[in-house]
Amino acid sequence: MTTTQLSFYLLCYFINTCFCIHLYQITPPVDHGEGPTWDCRKNLLYFVDIHAGNVYSYEPSSGNLHSIHLNGEVSPVIPSKRDPELLIVGVNRTVVAVEWNGNSSDYQSKPLVTVSKQFPMSRFNDGKADKQGRLWFGTMGYETSTSLAPNQGSLYKITRDNLHNPSVMISPVNISNGLAWNKANNKFYYIDTPTRKIVEYDYDDAGGEIKNGRVVFDLSWYSSIKGFPDGMTIDRDDNLWVALYSGSAVIKVDPKTGYLLQIVAIPAEAVTSVIWGGQNLDVLYITTSRYRLNKEQRLKQPYAGSVFALTDLGTGGVKGFKADIVDEI
Ligand code: BGC
Ligand code: CA
């Protein structure tokens, strides 16, 4: 750890202590934790281990952790509105319906549609459901530990009606990440990770349309903060909470002013995504990765890859939306 990194950690620790924030490691490390999502009907957290092809469920009340293995790279995982055991999962470039009760090793699956055929090495990365149950799933280009095929991703909107030919909403993008809607449901926030920016769009829920994209936050405005914005969620005060990949932190941003409101240090360099959960939706669940760490780095970051829970943040989330694109598999 460099002196700058150490002072950053110490500063964040000091700030966290002043705010009385608590951070808990709630799962053992996986390889590349991502895509956390909370199901308030079951009080269950889902997340994925992308390259390992695993979908996990975690029950905070019992501490039980279960998983299934799918054939490919998996992300995201979104529970369905009409059937709590039906999940919609991105597997490579295919949207797959998966029937899983969240605690056995048995499941059934059915592919629904494959996108981005022109970029066979690309894959789904992040995604969410909107209020109407339409899915906003984004892709990213092929990535090695040192490079990324640029401009090979897109953000798709997948509905019951366009299931065989999903609409492209934003393209091209590099790494599709960080989706959120404000409480009034008339703004949509989006991140293309390498740009280091958060873009706000006007959002029309009736038609599921976005327009007038403008940058509301750019990490480059803050020279002391390193890393890249990855997964994102929004709180009940309409502030954004953003995971910083290669940044060892989660940040809170006010998209109305562009101000950076808070930095919470996380003991893992690659912080991948965040979601509100818990019975009162006031626990911030955080996924991390150890995918790119070598042996030595893994020893220095023993918690990397774990899911964490942050409490006492003085705010919380609103109920996430569920997928409504198919009734059964
Ligand atoms: C992806 C990773 C990628 C990272 C880069 C994540 O959302 O899952 O594969 O390396 O973003 O910022
Ligand atoms: Ca992500």
Bound molecules: beta-D-glucopyranose, calcium ion
Which structural class should the secondary elements be placed in? Answer: mainly beta
Secondary structure tally, helices: 2
| Overall helicity | under 10%
The number of E-state strands comes to 24
What is the overall pLDDT average? 95
Low-confidence stretches: none
Oligomer: single chain
Largest sheet, in brief, is: 4 strands, antiparallel
Tell me the Rg in angstroms.
18 Å
Shape: globular
Q: Strand sequence of the main sheet, in spatial order?
A: 1-24-23-22
Distance between the amino and carboxyl termini: 49 Å
State the order of secondary-structure elements, H for helix, E for strand.
Answer: HEEEEEEEEEEEEEEEEEEEEEEEHE
Hey, roughly how much beta strand do the residues contain? over 45%
Overall description:
- With 329 residues, the chain is mainly beta.
- 7% of the residues lie in helices and 47% in strands.
- The chain has helices at 3-18, 295-300, and strands at 22-25, 33-39, 44-49, 54-59, 64-69, 74-79, 86-91, 94-99, 108-114, 123-129, 135-140, 153-158, 167-173, 176-181, 187-192, 197-204, 209-218, 228-234, 240-245, 249-254, 259-265, 270-277, 283-289, 307-311.
- The strands form six sheets. It has a four-stranded antiparallel sheet with strand order 1-24-23-22, with no helix packed on it. Strands 2-3-4-5 form a four-stranded antiparallel sheet, with no helix packed on it.
- It is globular and about 50 Å long.
- The model has no long low-confidence stretch (mean pLDDT 95).
- The structure holds beta-D-glucopyranose and calcium ion (CA).
- Calcium ion binds next to strand 10, strand 18 and strand 22.
